[in-house]
Design goal:
The protein has 358 residues and is of the alpha/beta class. It has 15 helices and eight strands. It has an eight-stranded mixed sheet with strand order 3-2-4-1-5-6-7-8, with helices on both faces.
Length: 358
């Protein structure tokens, strides 16, 4: 049956016409519905919008990060001096125990107790206020290396060698340092010279991608000095302001580690005579007294110029900074109080003491 017959004799083909009309209507409806679905804009409600988290100011993050140390000291001191106006030997013994538990270190605690003993006769203060003031002032003396730390070199590139045992957050801290220097409008290059661990190389590369920072890396097992050599060449060619070099964290064989670090330093000095300009040791604040042992161990294999303490937000023993500074006379360059890149910042001794003794 042709379309001409239907048109010529419509009365004889009513059924066919009805079916054809229905098909046309269905086709038009389908096309219209698909067009509507593709062009329809779904309104966004306030409930659908997820506000971006606002980064807290550093002073607030520092306050939160040191809260556990502050609470432990505050509660301990309040328990000792509650209702007391006269400082007794028994109270001094208890105070010694409280400060020791904050991992300040026995030798440093002895000095702090002696400062309290000498200050206790001040008539204008209660014994608690006298003790806190004496401890604060003496602690500030112990942190003098940080208060009077020499400024970083103006060399370009500024070459910083980062060392530390595995597990202290070394590679993560390097990423955070890169973020900090970038925030200061410095161009940064990273060097993955911890070739002993594939994970360290990969982790540093992840930080590089996140921060849009170039990472010089070789395969696992490569000569660390060769990686360092390539990184210095790259930093010089690119005009980088800062070169951060990750190194292996093996201390089980000090002789090998010493040889490795010495070789890296010789390679660096070929292109930059006074490199590395800084050698910083990363320390995990949660390890307490182990931090003393690590500083002692690394001092025997490297010329340390500064310390970085991480994970202060995860411990009530943040007093370790005071003891390490007193014993080793090294400046604390940075402290970390959280997981975010902005949670690693330069150490300011007075801010730190204000937060733990407030």
């Amino acid at each position: 049956m042709s379309m001409e017959n239907i048109i010529a004799n419509p009365s004889e083909h009513l059924l066919e016409i009805a079916i054809l009309a229905t098909a046309i209507l269905f086709l038009l409806f389908s096309v219209g519905w698909l067009f509507y679905r593709r062009t329809k804009v779904t309104p966004i409600t306030l409930q659908d919008e997820k506000p971006k988290p606002i980064a807290k100011p550093w002073f607030e993050r520092l306050d939160e990060g040191l809260s556990r140390t502050r609470s432990a000291l505050r509660e301990g001191l309040a328990g000792i001096f509650s209702g007391q106006k006269t400082l007794t030997q028994g109270m001094l013994d208890n105070l010694h125990e409280i400060l020791f538990r904050a991992d300040i270190g026995v030798k440093t605690v002895d000095k702090l107790i002696e400062s309290v003993r000498q200050a206790k006769a001040l008539p204008e203060d209660s014994s608690l206020d006298t003790a806190k003031k004496a401890i604060y002032n003496k602690s500030l003396e112990f942190l003098e290396p940080s208060l009077n730390a020499k400024p970083l070199s103006n060399s370009k590139p500024l070459i910083i060698l980062i060392i530390g045992v595995n597990g202290v957050g070394k590679t993560t801290s390097i990423g955070k340092l890169a973020a900090y220097f970038k925030s200061q409008n410095k161009s940064v290059l990273l060097c993955a010279a911890d070739t002993f661990r594939a994970a360290a190389i990969e982790q540093l590369q992840v930080w590089g991608e996140r921060l849009d920072v170039k990472v010089v890396a070789h395969q696992q097992g490569s000569d660390p000095a060769a990686v360092a050599y390539d990184s210095v060449k790259a930093a010089t060619a690119r005009g980088s302001d800062v070169l951060l070099i990750d190194t292996a964290g093996r201390l089980h064989n000090k002789q090998d580690l010493m040889k490795e670090l010495e070789k890296i330093k010789r390679i660096l000095a070929k292109d930059v005579p006074d490199a590395p300009h800084e050698t910083w040791l990363i320390l995990d604040a949660t390890t307490g007294q182990n931090a003393f042992q690590q500083v002692q161990a690394f001092k025997s294999v490297a010329d340390l110029s500064g310390l970085i303490f991480t994970k202060l937000d995860g411990t009530a023993k943040g007093g370790v900074l005071i003891g390490v500074s007193d014993e080793f006379k090294l400046p604390i360059r940075f402290i970390g109080v959280g997981e975010q890149a902005e949670d690693l910042r330069p150490f300011v001794a007075k801010d730190y003491l204000d937060k733990i003794f407030s």
